[in-house]
Amino acid sequence: MENISFRTTVLPLSDKLYRLALRITMNRAEAEDVVQDTLLKVWEHRQEWEQIDNLEAFAIATCRNRALDLLKRAGRRTENLDETAHFSSHTPQEQLEAREEVSLVRKLMEGLPEVQRTIMLLRDIEGKTYQEIAQTLDISETQVKVYLHRARTKIKEWITNT
User: Fold this and answer.
1) Neighbours of 19 (CB within 10 A)
2) Which is nearest to 81 in space by CA: 19, 140, 137, 129?
3) What contacts 122, CB < 8 A, 6 or more positions away?
4) pLDDT tens-place string over residues 127-151
5) pLDDT in tens, 78-123
6) What is the DSSP letter of 64?
7) What does the alpha-carbon distance between residue 149 and residue 140 come to, in Å, rounded to a whole number?
8) Are 18 and 67 in contact (CB under 8 A)?
9) Comparing C-alpha atoms, which of 118, 142, 113 is closest to residue 130?
């Protein structure tokens, strides 16, 4: 089994964890707190690292659960994120349209059930495989595919009806 180091194995996950926490909490300060809590929790389980099949999946699942707990305690209050996406469109009109589409999809994703939204974030934005998502959420790969299909179908329906 490989030698696992907090510095070389866990700390590089901070950016992924932050992006996930930020997408769930929609608040930068809360996302940072969630990441710190997650890293602390992973550190506390350092004696079990060798038994954990996928340390990254464990960290992501912990981060997701911490962020969801924070939202429950806060009564699901959120703040809007600044649009920071960079677009390859050439004209200002195309850039504006692309930003509006991103904003619309984000709003629509907020209306999805939590599991579907999380799976869509992990698959379409983070680029995780079905297997990694299944391990992270402790569900089968088939369920991941079903939830993802339902989420994408619902988003597509909402967009075509808008």
Assistant:
1) 16
2) 19
3) 20, 60, 128, 132, 133, 136
4) 888 998 998 888 999 999 999 999 9
5) 333 334 444 444 577 777 777 787 777 778 888 889 889 889 888 8
6) H
7) 14
8) no
9) 142
Q: Determine the Cα–Cα distance for residues 145 and 67; give it in Å rounded to an integer.
A: 23
Which residues are CB-contacts of 100 (< 8 A; sequence separation ≥ 6)? none
Domains and CATH numbers, the chain: 1-79 (1.10.1740), 90-162 (1.10.10.10)
Contacts for 126-132: CB closer than 8 Å, 24+ residues apart: 126/16, 126/19, 126/20, 132/54, 132/56, 132/57
Query: Is residue 135 within 8 Å of 56, Cβ to Cβ?
Result: no
C-alpha separations of 77 from 70, 84, 151 in Å: 10, 21, 22
What is the H or E stretch that residue 149 is in?
A: helix 141-161
In whole angstroms, give the CA distance from residue 139 to residue 118: 13
- Helices 28-44 and 14-25: crossing angle in degrees, nearest 10, is 130
> What number is the average pLDDT over the span 154-158?
87
Backbone angles phi, psi at 56, to 5 degrees: -65, -45
